[in-house]
Amino acid sequence: MYDLVIIGGGPAGVGAGVYAARKKIKTVLIADSFGGQSIVSNDVQNWIGMKSVTGLELAKMLEEHLRSYQSGLDIWDNDLVVKIEKAGNGFIVSTKNGKTAETKTILVCSGGSRRRLGVPGEDKLDGKGVAWCATCDAPLFGGKTVAVVGGGNSGLESAIDLNSYADKLYLLHRGDKLKGDLITQEKILAMSKITVIYNAVVQEILGDKLVTGLRYKDIITGEERTLEVGGVFIEVGNVPNSAFIKDLVKTNDFGEIIADARTQQSSAAGIWAAGDVSDVKYKQNNISVGDAILAVLNIFDYLHRQNNS
Amino acid sequence: MKTVKIYTTPTCVYCKMAKEFFNKNGIQYEEHNVAEDLKARQDMIDRSHQLGVPVIDVDGEIFVGFDRPALSKALGI
To answer: What was the pLDDT predicted at A136?
Structure first.
């Protein structure tokens, strides 16, 4: 019987794991990989204490820090939680690899996944010009005209990555103003290859074997236009990875687990949530770590109270 | 020993993870940097119909992305 199951290996899960081990809470951390969503980033400049670090380096640092406490907690990596059932006062957590853990409490740090556009052509042309990682794939679009969908930080950074390779870039944004950090917006607006198209909602991605274009609608005029592009990079935000637990806890309209901001406790006794899977207002690595540690300290108090009652 | 080819770009994280996975398991591989090698890029696109890296070829079988369980199976590790 475990005291705590931590689900996830991003900054939140690892932060929680380190604190749980130091508090000698009997813990297993279950994660398919380490590092979280920033792993694909070329250059993280806001991880406090480091001026610059790649996502992969950050992931390795996190994993190494966690593994230095290996004697203090169990780690089931390359695995994924698929089911959680209530059992008495606690829970039984089942994984894809067929393991089960009985536990008194659960901390969900399962993060988010990429939001898809949900338009025709997106699935069919996935990997065939529809792309999700500008850092990885930008060099393959050398000499092409490429569209980036999304005017938040990720969209802006993708456009900057692509600027070194593509001949011409369209940045499509559904709002009338870009959303990312001002410092990044200024960079984008100064790049001569990039045309920003505002109020644009993608209707369809075109192409047979490879992407040849996209059709979008101007939501102010209602007019539809087609762009000839050889690639579409989609950066339209995230969806929380909460499907496996949504029957046990309250979630908001976005599927985020509603967590009390003072304790990170969910609506269900014995379950906490932190990081991008929770309804935290700002999705940031540094915030995820802090919130997850807050949760572990609260879980420590909860377990202590239970043992004394 | 199976012949392993990996098509990569220098900035691709999943390519680095795949190569580390090969190194850790003593798998020898041939790397093609498709950011610079245009012939290899065309070869990759023709064979995999993919415009994304990594693409991994194990004895002619094509794997798209770094799919650790599938690669482990194909390589018998």
So the answer is: 86
CA–CA separation, A108 and A241 (whole Å): 10
ipTM summary value: 0.82
Give A140's contacts in chain B (Cβ within 8 Å). 9, 34-35, 41, 51-53
Pair of tokens at residue A126: 């996935």
- Three-state DSSP string of chain B: CCCEEEEECCCCHHHHHHHHHHHHCCCCCEEEECCCCHHHHHHHHHHHCCCCCCEEEECCEEEECCCHHHHHHHHCC
Residue of A nearest to B53 (CA): A137
List residues bridging with A4 in a β-sheet.
A27, A105
Tens-place pLDDT, residues A207-225: 999 999 999 999 999 999 9
Average pLDDT, whole number, for chain B?
A: 93
Mutate to test the interface with B, among A136, A160, A205, A211 (most CBs of B within 10 A): A136
pTM of the model: 0.84
Beta bridge partners of A108: A7, A273
Q: Nearest CA to CA, how far is B28 from chain A (Å)?
A: 22
If you search the block for the tokens 């820090």, which residue do you land on? Answer: A65
Whether residue B11 is predicted with pLDDT greater than 90 in this model: the reply is no
Name A37's Cβ contacts closer than 8 Å, sequence gap at least 6.
Answer: A10, A111, A112, A238, A276
- Cβ separation B51–A131 shorter than 8 A: yes
Measure Cα distances from A71 to A17, A22, A66 in Å: 12, 11, 10
pLDDT higher than 90, residue A23:
yes
Cβ of B5 under 8 Å from any chain A Cβ?
A: no
